[in-house]
Amino acid sequence: MRESTFWPRLLAHPWILGIAGILIVLLLWTAVTATGLVDRLFLPSPAAVLAAGQAQASAGILGRDLVASVTRVFTGFALSAVVALPLGIAMGTNRAICQLLEPLMGLIRYMPAPAFIPLLIIYFGLEELPKVMLIFIGTVFFNTLMIMDAVKFVPHELVETALTLGGSRAQVLTRVITPCIAPQVLDTYRINMASAWNLVIVAELVAANEGLGKRISLAQRFLRTDEIFVGLIVIGVIGLLIDLGFRLLMRRACSWAN
Amino acid sequence: MHLSVDSVCKSFGEGKARKLVLDTVSFSISSGEFVALVGSSGSGKSTMMRLVAGLERPSAGRITVDGVPVKGPGSDRGMVFQKYSLYPWLTAAQNVAFGMRLQRLPQREVQERTSYFLEVVGLSDAARRLPRELSGGMQQRVAIARALAAEPKVLLLDEPFGALDLQIRESMQEFLHGLWQRTGLTALLITHDLEEALLLAQRVHILAPRPGRIVRSVEADLPPGELAHLRISPEFLALREELAACLRGLDGGLGL
Ligand SMILES: Nc1ncnc2c1ncn2[C@@H]1O[C@H](COP(=O)(O)OP(=O)(O)OP(=O)(O)O)[C@@H](O)[C@H]1O
Ligand SMILES: [Mg+2]
Fold first, then answer.
1. Could you tell me where the beta strands, DSSP code E, fall in B72-198?
2. How many C-alpha atoms does B176 have within 13 Å on its Cβ side?
3. Which residue of A has its CA nearest to B97?
4. What is the ipTM of this complex?
5. How confident is the model over A13-49, as pLDDT tens digits?
6. Taking a contact as any Cβ pair under 8 Å apart, which residues of chain A between 162 and 191 contact chain B?
7. What string of DSSP letters covers B83-148?
8. How far, in whole angstroms, is CA A53 from its chain's centroid?
9. Of the CATH numbers 3.40.50.2000, 2.40.170.20, 3.40.50.720, 3.40.50.300, which one belongs to the domain with range B1-76+181-256?
């Protein structure tokens, strides 16, 4: 009796298939490495990767790398988010500002951010600043333009209703436009956060003392594929956690939009 | 209160693309009156409403409230749009309170008036619901309550029931009629539904299209009473038939 309701219910859980997908890949990975068909140098076994991860963690390397990369991503992205929000709103509400900046941003947006690394190193040296700036440059234009679009899609009835209720322009901005675009802003941040992670790894590959990307490039030098796998998996897991965090925040703060 | 629209023209576009949408329109409303503008689609009804609301400026002519020219939108002219314009992130009660909060009324007054106006539109039970949890008719009633709560001198209704199906439409007409009789509000109603205009308004202006201009104005002096009876009374039917012929003539003149 019990089983007949337990299994369908478990299978109906939205996460169950996703977890199954991950487990299947893990299983295949284990199986392939167990047969010894593939050189261990190319594909280390899950156990070897786990061991490498534990070794890094107990030596404190993993923690330091994690803190270094996460700090860079969060600083750069926070800067980008804080600049993009008012700028995007200004461009979405004011035609002159939009006409002035949109072509410029459209142009810069298509310049690959990693191509700025040499310039940033010349300008800011090899410390934290160039990495933070890279993340800033690589995400601020996308954030701004996506927020601008969200503002342009605010139904004008909502704005005009506020005006006919005696609202001022400032009140329209704070009471109508800001709450109305909140879900899209969170979604914009969630999507562009992924590029921030890409960029921090690229920046660390080029020049850094620590960080997850740096560890990967060091691992390559010593042919430690197991450590490369550790880096990749850790980056993936953190990215996923941030994504889930944004989704949770969205569900909490903008339940009306679901 | 006296709202006066005096020889107002409105055109959009420049040069060759310039298009005259309203041509020398004049009418007026005084306190307690219910006036309707009727016209087919594209006759410039919404444009007229937006001019009165101050959301657009006339190309020529004057719009005044108590002698003061309209320079922009203001809380003395409350507007209800055809499409649902409730704030989706606010509950019904918060929507009704929205205008009062913009005007920074004291908290207690906001609460009292919110529950009063929710009661007026018969939605006290729905106070905590979000707009997406309300039916179309309920949403429009909240929008009307929100406009009324800001205490406008005149209520501007731009096809407020245009998106509702026939049955709800009729009950909303009854609701609005009752509201007018009870509260003595002043309203300008825009509609393409002749019957709606004649039932609700005391004075009906017929707007001819391309360019929009008033071709006929009638006093709809129907005996007071229930709308359901009024709908089938001989006076009403005769008036409706006469004006319907007038409207058909306008469209026929365009070879439609
Ligand atoms: N901002 C604008 N720019 C250019 N043309 C406009 C603008 N607003 C309205 N028009 C034109 O003015 C004419 C009248 O439009 P309006 O919306 O006032 O008509 P309406 O009578 O409300 O029609 P409907 O019954 O479909 O709502 C239309 O031909 C429309 O294309
Ligand atoms: Mg219209």
1. 77-80, 154-158, 187-191
2. 30
3. A165
4. 0.90
5. 888 888 999 999 999 999 999 988 888 888 999 999 9
6. 162-168, 171, 175-176, 179-180, 182
7. S----TTS-HHHHHHHHHHHTT--HHHHHHHHHHHHHHTT-GGGTT--GGGS-HHHHHHHHHHHHH
8. 23
9. 3.40.50.300
- What does the buried/exposed string (b/e) look like for A88-113 if buried means 16 or more CB atoms within 10 Å of the residue's CB? bbbbbbeeeebeebeeebeeeeeeeb
Q: Does B188 touch chain A (CB under 8 A)?
A: no
- Tokens 């020529």 -> residue: B60
**Nearest chain A CA: its distance from B147 CA (Å):** 7
Least confident of A54-68, A88-102, B12-26, B159-173: B159-173
Per-residue pLDDT averaged across B80-88, rounded? Answer: 89
Residue nearest (by alpha carbon) to ligand 1 atom 8: B47
Tokens of A102: 């949109």
Is the confidence at residue A198, as pLDDT, over 50? yes
Give the per-residue pLDDT at A2: 58
Cα dist from B70 to A189, B46, B67, B94, whole Å: 42, 17, 9, 29
| Neighbouring-strand partners of residue B78 | B155
Mean per-residue pLDDT over chain B, rounded:
90
Q: Has residue A131 been placed in a domain?
A: yes
Q: Which residues belong to CATH 3.40.50.300 in chain B?
A: 1-76+181-256
Give B133-186 pLDDT, tens digit per residue. Answer: 999 889 999 999 999 999 999 999 999 988 888 888 888 899 899 888 888 899
Does residue B40 have its Cβ closer than 6 Å to ligand 1? no
Least confident of A222-226, A239-243, B249-253: B249-253
Residue A43 lies in a domain: no
B88 vs A162, A165, A256: nearest CB: A256
Q: How many distinct structural domains can be found in chain A?
A: 1
Please report, for the domain that includes residue A165, its CATH number. 1.10.3720.10
Tell me the CA–centroid distance for residue B4 and ligand 1, in Å: 22
Query: Can you tell me the distance from the alpha carbon of A136 to that of A87, in angstroms, rounded to the nearest whole number?
Result: 14
Residue A21 included in any domain: no
- As beta bridge partners, residue B6 has B62
Whether A62 maps to a domain, the answer reads yes
Domain range spanning residue A74? 56-257
Distance, in Å, from the CA atom of A232 to the CA atom of A241, rounded to the nearest integer, reads 14
Interface test with B, best of A156, A163, A164, A255 (most B CBs within 10 A): A164
